[in-house]
Amino acid sequence: MDESNQNQVAKEIKQYCLTISRPNGQRNEKVAKEIKQYCLTIDHLNYNTIHSAHQIKQGVEDKWRDSIPTYFIYSFFTFNSIYSIDWGKTKSENELTYHSEGFERTRINKLLSFCFEGAEEQAKITFSEFIKKNLPDKFDTHDKFDTQVFLGLIKEDKNEKGNVKEIVEDKFGRYHYPIKDFKDAFRRFMKRDIPNEDECQKIAQFIYSVRCNLFHGLKQVVQLENRNSDIEKELYKLKVYTAFLNGINSFCINQIKHEFSAY
Fold first, then answer.
1. Is the overall model pTM greater than 0.90, yes or no?
2. How many domains does the chain have?
3. 155-175: pLDDT as tens digits
4. Distance between CA 241 and CA 204 in Å, rounded?
Protein backbone atom coordinates (compact mmCIF):
# COMPACT_ATOMS: atom_id res chain seq x y z
CA MET A 1 0.00 0.00 0.00
CA ASP A 2 1.50 3.35 -0.98
CA GLU A 3 1.85 6.21 1.51
CA SER A 4 -1.15 8.19 0.26
CA ASN A 5 -3.46 5.16 0.60
CA GLN A 6 -2.10 4.38 4.06
CA ASN A 7 -2.69 7.94 5.18
CA GLN A 8 -6.24 7.90 3.84
CA VAL A 9 -7.04 4.59 5.57
CA ALA A 10 -5.55 5.84 8.83
CA LYS A 11 -7.53 9.09 8.58
CA GLU A 12 -10.83 7.29 8.01
CA ILE A 13 -10.30 4.85 10.86
CA LYS A 14 -9.17 7.58 13.23
CA GLN A 15 -12.33 9.52 12.45
CA TYR A 16 -14.75 6.69 13.22
CA CYS A 17 -12.80 5.50 16.24
CA LEU A 18 -13.12 8.97 17.76
CA THR A 19 -16.89 8.53 17.70
CA ILE A 20 -16.83 5.37 19.85
CA SER A 21 -18.18 6.13 23.31
CA ARG A 22 -19.60 4.61 26.46
CA PRO A 23 -23.39 4.77 26.99
CA ASN A 24 -22.86 7.83 29.17
CA GLY A 25 -21.30 9.63 26.25
CA GLN A 26 -17.71 9.62 27.50
CA ARG A 27 -15.25 8.31 24.97
CA ASN A 28 -13.27 5.24 26.00
CA GLU A 29 -9.81 5.93 24.57
CA LYS A 30 -8.51 2.42 25.24
CA VAL A 31 -11.40 0.76 23.40
CA ALA A 32 -11.09 3.21 20.52
CA LYS A 33 -7.37 2.52 20.25
CA GLU A 34 -7.83 -1.28 20.29
CA ILE A 35 -10.51 -1.23 17.62
CA LYS A 36 -8.56 1.28 15.55
CA GLN A 37 -5.46 -0.91 15.63
CA TYR A 38 -7.36 -4.09 14.79
CA CYS A 39 -9.21 -2.46 11.92
CA LEU A 40 -5.97 -1.03 10.54
CA THR A 41 -4.46 -4.50 10.71
CA ILE A 42 -7.22 -6.32 8.83
CA ASP A 43 -7.58 -3.46 6.34
CA HIS A 44 -3.86 -3.55 5.49
CA LEU A 45 -3.84 -7.36 5.48
CA ASN A 46 -6.74 -7.45 3.03
CA TYR A 47 -5.16 -4.83 0.75
CA ASN A 48 -1.81 -6.62 0.68
CA THR A 49 -3.46 -10.00 0.13
CA ILE A 50 -5.32 -8.72 -2.93
CA HIS A 51 -2.54 -6.63 -4.47
CA SER A 52 0.63 -8.57 -3.64
CA ALA A 53 2.26 -11.14 -5.92
CA HIS A 54 1.94 -14.60 -4.37
CA GLN A 55 4.87 -16.51 -5.82
CA ILE A 56 7.20 -19.37 -4.96
CA LYS A 57 10.36 -20.97 -6.32
CA GLN A 58 11.85 -24.34 -5.44
CA GLY A 59 15.53 -23.57 -5.87
CA VAL A 60 18.06 -20.82 -6.40
CA GLU A 61 18.08 -21.37 -10.16
CA ASP A 62 14.30 -21.63 -10.40
CA LYS A 63 12.15 -18.70 -11.55
CA TRP A 64 9.46 -17.20 -9.38
CA ARG A 65 6.05 -18.65 -10.25
CA ASP A 66 2.55 -17.64 -9.24
CA SER A 67 1.27 -19.80 -6.39
CA ILE A 68 -2.50 -20.05 -6.39
CA PRO A 69 -2.66 -22.09 -3.14
CA THR A 70 -0.60 -19.40 -1.39
CA TYR A 71 -3.03 -16.71 -2.56
CA PHE A 72 -5.97 -18.76 -1.27
CA ILE A 73 -4.28 -19.32 2.10
CA TYR A 74 -3.53 -15.62 2.58
CA SER A 75 -7.13 -14.75 1.68
CA PHE A 76 -8.46 -17.25 4.19
CA PHE A 77 -6.06 -16.01 6.84
CA THR A 78 -7.53 -12.53 6.36
CA PHE A 79 -11.04 -13.99 6.63
CA ASN A 80 -10.09 -15.82 9.82
CA SER A 81 -8.70 -12.60 11.29
CA ILE A 82 -12.08 -10.94 10.74
CA TYR A 83 -14.43 -13.68 11.97
CA SER A 84 -12.30 -14.38 15.05
CA ILE A 85 -13.82 -11.22 16.56
CA ASP A 86 -17.38 -11.26 17.89
CA TRP A 87 -18.36 -7.94 16.32
CA GLY A 88 -21.89 -7.96 17.70
CA LYS A 89 -20.62 -8.37 21.24
CA THR A 90 -17.86 -5.84 20.60
CA LYS A 91 -20.51 -3.31 19.68
CA SER A 92 -22.95 -4.10 22.50
CA GLU A 93 -20.29 -4.23 25.24
CA ASN A 94 -18.07 -1.51 23.79
CA GLU A 95 -14.97 -3.69 24.01
CA LEU A 96 -13.01 -5.60 21.39
CA THR A 97 -14.15 -9.17 22.04
CA TYR A 98 -12.79 -12.41 20.57
CA HIS A 99 -15.03 -15.45 20.27
CA SER A 100 -14.48 -17.64 23.31
CA GLU A 101 -16.49 -20.65 22.19
CA GLY A 102 -18.30 -22.20 19.25
CA PHE A 103 -17.13 -23.88 16.04
CA GLU A 104 -15.56 -21.93 13.21
CA ARG A 105 -18.74 -22.32 11.18
CA THR A 106 -20.76 -20.58 13.88
CA ARG A 107 -18.30 -17.70 13.96
CA ILE A 108 -18.44 -17.33 10.18
CA ASN A 109 -22.23 -17.21 10.24
CA LYS A 110 -22.24 -14.63 13.04
CA LEU A 111 -19.84 -12.39 11.12
CA LEU A 112 -21.94 -12.47 7.95
CA SER A 113 -25.17 -11.95 9.90
CA PHE A 114 -23.65 -8.90 11.60
CA CYS A 115 -22.47 -7.42 8.30
CA PHE A 116 -25.62 -8.15 6.28
CA GLU A 117 -27.89 -6.81 9.00
CA GLY A 118 -26.42 -3.33 8.75
CA ALA A 119 -25.59 -3.31 5.03
CA GLU A 120 -27.37 -0.96 2.67
CA GLU A 121 -28.52 -2.25 -0.70
CA GLN A 122 -25.70 -0.53 -2.60
CA ALA A 123 -23.08 -2.12 -0.35
CA LYS A 124 -24.46 -5.56 -1.19
CA ILE A 125 -24.51 -4.75 -4.91
CA THR A 126 -20.88 -3.56 -4.76
CA PHE A 127 -19.96 -6.76 -2.92
CA SER A 128 -21.55 -8.91 -5.63
CA GLU A 129 -20.00 -6.87 -8.45
CA PHE A 130 -16.53 -7.13 -6.91
CA ILE A 131 -16.69 -10.92 -6.84
CA LYS A 132 -18.13 -11.35 -10.33
CA LYS A 133 -15.55 -8.94 -11.75
CA ASN A 134 -12.67 -10.92 -10.24
CA LEU A 135 -13.78 -14.44 -11.14
CA PRO A 136 -11.38 -16.17 -13.56
CA ASP A 137 -12.21 -16.83 -17.20
CA LYS A 138 -14.03 -20.01 -18.13
CA PHE A 139 -11.86 -23.04 -17.41
CA ASP A 140 -9.41 -23.91 -20.20
CA THR A 141 -10.57 -21.00 -22.40
CA HIS A 142 -10.50 -17.22 -22.48
CA ASP A 143 -14.28 -16.96 -22.47
CA LYS A 144 -16.25 -15.31 -19.68
CA PHE A 145 -16.64 -17.23 -16.41
CA ASP A 146 -19.27 -19.96 -16.75
CA THR A 147 -21.12 -21.03 -13.61
CA GLN A 148 -22.15 -24.45 -14.90
CA VAL A 149 -18.68 -25.32 -16.16
CA PHE A 150 -17.19 -24.37 -12.79
CA LEU A 151 -19.76 -26.35 -10.78
CA GLY A 152 -19.21 -29.32 -13.06
CA LEU A 153 -15.60 -29.47 -11.86
CA ILE A 154 -16.72 -30.08 -8.27
CA LYS A 155 -17.33 -33.77 -7.77
CA GLU A 156 -17.61 -35.86 -4.63
CA ASP A 157 -15.48 -38.96 -4.51
CA LYS A 158 -15.89 -40.84 -1.24
CA ASN A 159 -13.01 -43.13 -2.12
CA GLU A 160 -10.55 -40.26 -1.76
CA LYS A 161 -11.25 -39.00 1.74
CA GLY A 162 -9.10 -36.08 2.73
CA ASN A 163 -7.55 -35.66 -0.71
CA VAL A 164 -7.33 -32.03 -1.73
CA LYS A 165 -8.68 -33.02 -5.13
CA GLU A 166 -12.16 -33.56 -3.76
CA ILE A 167 -14.21 -31.87 -1.08
CA VAL A 168 -15.52 -34.78 0.94
CA GLU A 169 -16.02 -35.74 4.55
CA ASP A 170 -12.63 -36.59 5.99
CA LYS A 171 -11.52 -37.86 9.40
CA PHE A 172 -12.44 -34.46 10.84
CA GLY A 173 -16.16 -34.90 10.23
CA ARG A 174 -17.09 -31.36 11.21
CA TYR A 175 -15.22 -30.10 8.14
CA HIS A 176 -17.68 -31.71 5.78
CA TYR A 177 -20.25 -29.57 4.03
CA PRO A 178 -22.77 -30.86 1.48
CA ILE A 179 -21.76 -30.08 -2.09
CA LYS A 180 -25.39 -29.72 -3.24
CA ASP A 181 -26.02 -26.87 -0.77
CA PHE A 182 -22.98 -25.05 -2.06
CA LYS A 183 -23.91 -25.48 -5.71
CA ASP A 184 -27.48 -24.28 -5.16
CA ALA A 185 -26.26 -21.25 -3.21
CA PHE A 186 -23.60 -20.46 -5.83
CA ARG A 187 -26.14 -20.53 -8.66
CA ARG A 188 -28.48 -18.20 -6.78
CA PHE A 189 -25.63 -15.83 -5.96
CA MET A 190 -24.56 -15.60 -9.60
CA LYS A 191 -28.12 -14.88 -10.79
CA ARG A 192 -28.83 -12.12 -8.29
CA ASP A 193 -27.69 -8.51 -8.36
CA ILE A 194 -28.23 -8.27 -4.60
CA PRO A 195 -26.85 -11.27 -2.64
CA ASN A 196 -28.47 -12.48 0.54
CA GLU A 197 -27.04 -13.67 3.82
CA ASP A 198 -28.05 -17.33 3.55
CA GLU A 199 -26.37 -17.85 0.18
CA CYS A 200 -23.15 -16.21 1.30
CA GLN A 201 -23.07 -18.25 4.49
CA LYS A 202 -23.41 -21.50 2.54
CA ILE A 203 -20.67 -20.46 0.11
CA ALA A 204 -18.37 -19.40 2.95
CA GLN A 205 -19.03 -22.66 4.81
CA PHE A 206 -18.05 -24.68 1.76
CA ILE A 207 -14.87 -22.64 1.25
CA TYR A 208 -14.07 -23.37 4.89
CA SER A 209 -14.31 -27.08 4.00
CA VAL A 210 -11.86 -26.48 1.17
CA ARG A 211 -9.50 -24.77 3.58
CA CYS A 212 -9.70 -27.66 6.04
CA ASN A 213 -9.12 -30.33 3.42
CA LEU A 214 -6.24 -28.31 1.99
CA PHE A 215 -4.65 -28.03 5.43
CA HIS A 216 -5.47 -31.51 6.77
CA GLY A 217 -6.04 -33.68 3.71
CA LEU A 218 -3.59 -36.06 2.07
CA LYS A 219 -1.52 -34.03 -0.37
CA GLN A 220 1.93 -32.71 -1.09
CA VAL A 221 3.11 -29.35 -2.40
CA VAL A 222 4.20 -31.02 -5.61
CA GLN A 223 0.62 -32.22 -6.16
CA LEU A 224 -0.57 -28.64 -6.12
CA GLU A 225 2.15 -27.23 -8.35
CA ASN A 226 2.77 -29.87 -11.01
CA ARG A 227 0.80 -28.81 -14.04
CA ASN A 228 -1.44 -31.58 -15.38
CA SER A 229 -5.12 -31.55 -16.32
CA ASP A 230 -6.37 -32.71 -12.91
CA ILE A 231 -4.28 -30.26 -10.93
CA GLU A 232 -5.17 -27.41 -13.28
CA LYS A 233 -8.83 -28.01 -12.42
CA GLU A 234 -8.09 -27.87 -8.71
CA LEU A 235 -6.06 -24.69 -9.04
CA TYR A 236 -8.84 -23.16 -11.09
CA LYS A 237 -11.35 -23.90 -8.32
CA LEU A 238 -9.02 -22.29 -5.79
CA LYS A 239 -9.01 -19.14 -7.95
CA VAL A 240 -12.80 -19.00 -7.71
CA TYR A 241 -12.81 -19.56 -3.95
CA THR A 242 -10.14 -16.88 -3.52
CA ALA A 243 -12.21 -14.35 -5.48
CA PHE A 244 -15.12 -15.02 -3.12
CA LEU A 245 -12.95 -14.72 -0.04
CA ASN A 246 -11.51 -11.41 -1.20
CA GLY A 247 -15.01 -10.11 -1.85
CA ILE A 248 -16.32 -11.28 1.52
CA ASN A 249 -13.30 -9.80 3.31
CA SER A 250 -13.65 -6.41 1.63
CA PHE A 251 -17.41 -6.31 2.25
CA CYS A 252 -17.06 -7.24 5.93
CA ILE A 253 -14.26 -4.75 6.59
CA ASN A 254 -16.27 -1.94 5.02
CA GLN A 255 -19.35 -2.88 7.03
CA ILE A 256 -17.39 -3.05 10.28
CA LYS A 257 -16.01 0.42 9.63
CA HIS A 258 -19.53 1.63 8.85
CA GLU A 259 -21.05 0.07 11.97
CA PHE A 260 -18.51 1.62 14.28
CA SER A 261 -18.61 5.01 12.62
CA ALA A 262 -22.27 5.25 13.63
CA TYR A 263 -21.75 3.84 17.12
1. no
2. 1
3. 764 433 344 444 444 444 444
4. 9
